[in-house]
């Protein structure tokens, strides 16, 4: 529904073979947005490519990141569609990033300005567990010369080869 200040979005759905998205909300013609959404994915890489394409179409040039696994994301997109802030909770299994499978986990995340802020993250892989709080860049080097990682990671029984490989330190003794 179009009004003089807002475009109101009724409950809507988008689906591919591996991604299901529900949205609703409102936007002041792309500038002030409040758009709650839900994503269920059986392939995070395909879902990220789809959502990157949608954000790029609305003026926020976005490239997909290397990611894998399956899971859900419940959140809200705020602010301008060309400079969104995405807040939400994700849960996943077989999660993959930096060429390492991290197992299953959940986290509260905020995505803005090509950063992901992670809070209350718990990853589990076999009998290993990792707890994570902090900020991760979605690209590096950053044009604004910002940090790549600023996080606190507490690992219990986590396989050291995973950490070496993720940070390109395979040859480190």
Features:
nine-stranded antiparallel sheet, mainly beta, single chain, 173 residues
Question: Could you characterize what this model shows?
Answer:
The protein is mostly beta strands. It has helices spanning 44-57, 160-166, and strands at 7-15, 19-27, 33-41, 68-78, 85-97, 100-112, 115-125, 128-137, 149-156. The protein has a 9-stranded antiparallel β-sheet. A hairpin with a 2-residue loop joins strand 7 (115-125) and strand 8.
Percent helix: 10-25%
State the secondary-structure class: mainly beta
Major sheet size, sense and barrel closure: 9 strands, antiparallel
Order of strands across the main sheet = 1-2-3-4-5-6-7-8-9
Distance between the termini: 61 Å
Mean pLDDT score: 92
Proportion in β-strands:
over 45%
Low-confidence stretches: none
Number of strands: 9
Any idea what the shape is?
Answer: globular
Order of helix and strand elements from N to C terminus: EEEHEEEEEEH
Structure, briefly:
The chain has 173 residues and is mainly β. It has helices at 44-57, 160-166; strands at residues 7-15, 19-27, 33-41, 68-78, 85-97, 100-112, 115-125, 128-137, 149-156.
Topology:
Layout: E1 7-15, E2 19-27, E3 33-41, H1 44-57, E4 68-78, E5 85-97, E6 100-112, E7 115-125, E8 128-137, E9 149-156, H2 160-166
Antiparallel strand pairs: 1-2, 2-3, 3-4, 4-5, 5-6, 6-7, 7-8, 8-9
């Amino acid at each position: 529904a179009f009004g003089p200040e807002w475009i109101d979005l009724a409950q809507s759905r988008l689906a591919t073979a591996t991604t299901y998205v529900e949205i609703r909300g409102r936007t002041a013609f792309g500038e002030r947005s409040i758009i709650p959404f839900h994503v269920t994915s059986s392939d995070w890489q395909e879902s990220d490519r789809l959502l990157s394409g949608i954000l790029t179409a609305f003026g926020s040039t976005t490239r997909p990141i290397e990611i894998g696994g399956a899971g859900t994301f419940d959140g809200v997109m705020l602010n301008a569609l060309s400079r969104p802030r995405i807040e939400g909770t994700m849960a996943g299994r077989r999660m993959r990033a930096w060429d390492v499978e991290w197992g299953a986990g959940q986290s509260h995340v905020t995505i803005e300005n090509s950063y992901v802020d992670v809070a209350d993250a718990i990853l589990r892989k076999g009998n290993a567990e990792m707890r994570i709080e902090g900020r991760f860049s979605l690209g590096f080097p950053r044009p604004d010369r910002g940090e790549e990682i600023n996080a606190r990671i507490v690992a219990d029984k986590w396989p050291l080869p995973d950490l070496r490989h993720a940070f390109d330190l395979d040859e480190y003794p």
